[in-house]
Input
Amino acid sequence: MASHYEAPIREPLIIGDKSYHDITKDVAAPVEGKANKQWWIVFIISMAAFLWGAGCMLYTIGTGIGTWGLNKTVGWAWDITNFVWWVGIGHAGTLISAVLLLFRQKWRMAINRSAEAMTIFAVVQAGLFPIIHMGRPWMGYWVLPIPNQFGSLWTNFNSPLLWDVFAISTYLSVSLVFWWTGLLPDFAMLRDRAVRPFQKKIYGLLSFGWSGRAKDWQRFEEVSLVLAGLATPLVLSVHTIVSMDFATSVIPGWHTTIFPPYFVAGAVFSGFAMVQTLLIIMRKVSNLEAYITLQHIELMNIIIMVTGSIVGCAYITELFVAWYSGVEYEQYAFLNRATGPYAWAYWLMMTCNVFSPQFMWSKKLRTSIIFSFGISIVVNIGMWFERFVIIVTSLHRDYLPSSWTMFSPSFVDIGIYVGTIGFFFVLFLLYARTFPVIAQAEVKSILKSSGENYKKLRDGNHE
Amino acid sequence: MASSKKYWKSVEELKENSSIVDTLRQNEFVEKLPEDAFLGDKETLESSSTTRRDFLKYVGFTTAAATLAACEGPVIKSIPYVVKPDDIIPGVPDYYATTIADGFDFANVLVKVREGRPIKIDPNKLVHGETNARVQASVLSLYDKYRLQKPQIKGAEASWNEVDKQITAELAKLSSQGKSIVFLTGTMASPSTSKLIAEFKQKYGDVRHVVYDAYSESAALDAFEEMHGERALADYDLEKANLIVSIGADFIGDWQGGGYEAGYAKGRIPKNGKMSRHIQFESNMSLSGANADKRIMLKPSEQAFALINLYNAVTGSNLPSKNTPVDAQIKAAAQEIKKHGSKAVVLTGVQDKNAQRIALELNKAIRSEVMDVEKPKYTRQGNDTAVAQLIKDMNAGNVGAIFTYNTNPVYTLADSDKFVAGLKKVALSVAVSMNNDETVNAMEFALPAPHYLEAWGDVQIKKGSYSLTQPTIRPLFDTRQFQENLLKWTGNNVSYYDYIKNLWTETVLNGSSWNQALHDGAITVSAVVEEETPITSTEEITENTEETEEVLTDLSAIASALVAATKSSDLELQLYVKTGMGDGRMASNPWLQEFPDPISRASWDNYLTVSQADAEKLGLENYNVANGALNGSYATLTVGGKDLTVPVYIMPGQAKGSVGLAIGYGRTKGMNEELMTGVNAFAFAVNNKAVQPATLAKGAGDHEFACVQLQNTLMGRGDVVKETTLNVYNDKSLDPKHSWNPVPVVSLDHQEVEATTVDLWDSFDRTVGHHFNLSIDLNACTGCGACVIACHAENNVPVVGKEEVRKSRDMHWLRIDRYFSSEETFAGDDKKKNEFSGLFGEQGSLDGFVQMEESSENPQVVFQPVMCQHCNHAPCETVCPVAATSHGRQGQNHMAYNRCVGTRYCANNCPYKVRRFNWFQYAENEVFDFNMNDDLGRMVLNPDVVVRSRGVMEKCSMCIQMTQAQILKAKNEGRPVKDEEFQVACSQACGTGAMIFGDVNDKESQVAAARKDDRAYHLLEHVGTQPNVVYQVKVRNTEA
Output
């Protein structure tokens, strides 16, 4: 698909003097080698957090939602905050693999595999919350339109929560298929290199019998394109629908038509921040600096800056519209958000999401790895608070002042959140040790055009 | 079942020794069975498809099946009637008219009995019965496992025979020694009991009956007795009043026995442009003060002077008095009294005989039509002097025996240690009591008495108004009622039932039917029956007291005595009665503990109410913690050398220099430990006076309150509680919709239209069938909270305990929001908010809203009952993913608990925040050890309403079980339902007529009229929810 020529002005995407075989070796190394100490330390911490979270979930299911900090006025808090946060994080993967594929952005090739893995693992975390936040999770299957013998009972298609069910499950399945399709040639590569029969067998199964024929490659390219076309609208639809949980309600601060685009921008924003966090660590730990280059980091920083600014515009638009609407309840909701008892959360959100990405205007800062890492963490914190602010500050003081109260999390709320972070990292760490973390087949396709050594060779000829 | 019937099989059997019959009898099979045909034939046997293995399978299966079938199933304790009682039809409730007269509450009630269990108390409207929150909750006290269950002698269980033997022996001994025998009871007002005690006196000689009210009305009784020669209380028909001036009388609460709110509320609904006006002078913020058109803060000591000044100003006389800071307002009030003349009335709660006397004289002077002294009330009869004398006598060793009933002096007396010390010198001490309370524990004999729902009784609430108490269930425990005991001990073999019946036939009934009286629950006789004078002691006491007070006839002497007796101090403590707790006899009732106080909205507590100014001076504070819950400083309150650490609640409207503390809390015996809340304020009621000089100091640490409402002000949201003034309301030139009851407008196609006309949804065809609506009149609602408990009882609402309420997880389906104004008036709040300009600066909204969160020093108050609004376009219904909440054709918003998966989305999307989530399993859970956790307590559950499991949402159902039952009943009887037959628990309990329920499709119905009233509005109309609950704009009578 790619011609071998690339303009000399473009930075090389693969650093150093790499051959096809080098790429194979580099990508297969984490899978074939032994885990180092750091991996084990991080894994054990994540596992511990995950087990603690699982314990908290079981406690909730066994005892009741009362173990959380919720009350009659604030019926959702950390549960749905975490849900939206994780779904948002999941957005970068699809954006990178599908949208950037359609736009022929070759730099995505080094990062799409991990970004998609992150998407899937994040959606798994997100999917937990709608289930455990139910008072009777064992009846959770009632939200699915399954033909049943309960009489004429059927789901309520008016409910945005039901749309969520469809949106999230569609998203998860399409992402999974897309990811797996990309993985086939790479699994085949691992299969072919495997020396132990068990490993060979497993990777053989995972690669679905990939043979590497021209027909395989042709179908692979076609399927990728079709799936990219399918996944692209999902990038927009999933968070649009999640935002409708709030936008279709009657609660001031939730009932806002700006929510769909605002949520999508926020999702891409937080998703890229999470990809940034993960890849900065991974390129170091797995020795992939030659493939995940400073240029990748810089490009992602630019996306973070742009989406952060979109989100900032949305925040200000909300304030403006509240004032302009002349509706006193709407006005008070936003006044309370910015100056009420949860003002600290609001300004934390503002600082993290709107002010901090503006540093990326500076070339020096956005090419600093440490600074980028710091900002990516800050943005993730900020985006968590964005959801917290939307959910809790709108609910805690709504129409009738008699119902006003506050929310404070219990140890179970915190435990479950920490547990999902642990679970996420457990999955990601296992992935990093068993999956080809870079789409090596794709990267190989741009080696001749975007590899540093080849570029140098070519550029030298030009002079 | 074996049958002894014999059936003839043939005529042969008639013949004796018939061979055929014999053969048949010996041989079951007449013809030989063809065994050989299938056993003898080897071939057939071998070709049979049933192999040995199959046979073993069959055997195995049948054995297993038989074994399984023989296993014992779960034992469900339901026993069908072998012989069904005639009057019990399962599923159909019976109603009995009876009367509560527990010494504090007196009311004619109707008891709903299901399958033999009383489950609900309703007011007996046939005889103008009214119920307050406590009466509503009293049914739960019946099923209290902490009740005294068996007779005890010195702590050891004993039989009634043993008890009778010992007591009669002791009585005979004492009587022969000439020792005095004393009955110490709460107010009984029971003609038959008075007669019984008289008979007891005849038998045993020196017998005294001392009546003791824990919260004293002795002063008022003395004053009335002085004027009218009878120990009773004047009655007031507040419906007739055009002007009510109250000086420290919480007449909507429990002032002089209470029961005035219905008449009051009737006069408060503007009719023909008129409503009564109410001016309240008081120190604590009371229910009455909260409802007043004008409330003036006044320290308790100054209330006495204010009363004299008012008398002077109205009558133009010149009684000795002192100046008060509110003399100008007193003068203004006097002008109004003069204007309204006999349509005015003055009430006072000052606990001084002379003050009460002046009030009575003042009402007499203006010839108040409101006051009725001809037919006074008997619901309070306590005599403080007699009680004091009794304690003195006990300690002097002059009392031989003491019997207590309906009273708990060890808990309620300030000097209870003296009482306990005196008890030691009494040879025979007997407590007859339902509760296993403090007094029972201090006495030698503890005799269990039945709950009023298990007992017979009669009571004269008001002169000429006699009521009957009848049992509605067999006694649950080994109890015997007080009067039965008296009969037994006087050697009378008549049962108490026969005794009352005989007495009534002789006196009260005057020829009318006993059965009719029992059916109605009460009877009013015009000719007042002369009964035996109750030995309520005044004459006797006067003999015993050394200094007899001279009856003062000269008012100026009365006034100067009052002035002399009234001592001001820097800080005055005013003890008060909470409408949710009374005098503490029902403290073991979890419904009442969880009942939020109408004013403070705090449950599970009593606390010292302190004014903002005094709190600042002493460094006392109230603040909200991270989850919103309220904390308050502790303070040490000292009265006459005694001190107590009390939590402080900073109360708007508390007069500077005064503090308030509710009685009825701090019980320590005979109840669930979790319910032993608060402090015992009776410890401060020295000489049974509710006002005491006190000192206050900041204590260490903070108290955790459980408040159901944490934001006290309305934040200028005038469209939530709409109100106007009588002047504006009466102004016919105004169109209500565009002036005092504005309908919100929205822009539709660039046109301003009423928000209610814009609609996204299709509606049901409402013209067919019933369409239920509930109208709530904010003018008539006094905030008393009877409806809250009624709802609790009718709908099996769980009690969740203090910790959970503190986490804002109360389960009340119906709440009464109470708002304080932030400015002096709510109109002031609205004005302030509307004048906000910009964010910053003096009129900036940033500071402005923060200021509006604080209540005014002396705020206006409003009560607003809020339950599910049953929106025709309900926001909750659209968001439920499983359609667990959906709309009914009769207007109700249904909740299918079984379908609910518990996402709580509906609760979030409810603009009224009326949905309640089952955070835990509240029934049969050790952690929530209230009535739903024991078999006895669960007997109160309404079988028509399901008990919700954890994880599901619940909310007001508009008592669909009641409306459906009514519809079916009418259908069975082949007639349309009458308007007044449609009731919901809250509307039924509401004594003030604030809640009207019915079918708006019945054009003649009251609720249809209410919905069309000019005052009608919907809560948060602009949201477009189209509720089926309609409110009536509150009108304040600000005309001076």
Residues 20-139+233-453 of chain A form one domain. Chain A touches chain B through 56 residues (CB under 8 Å). Chain A has a mean pLDDT of 90.
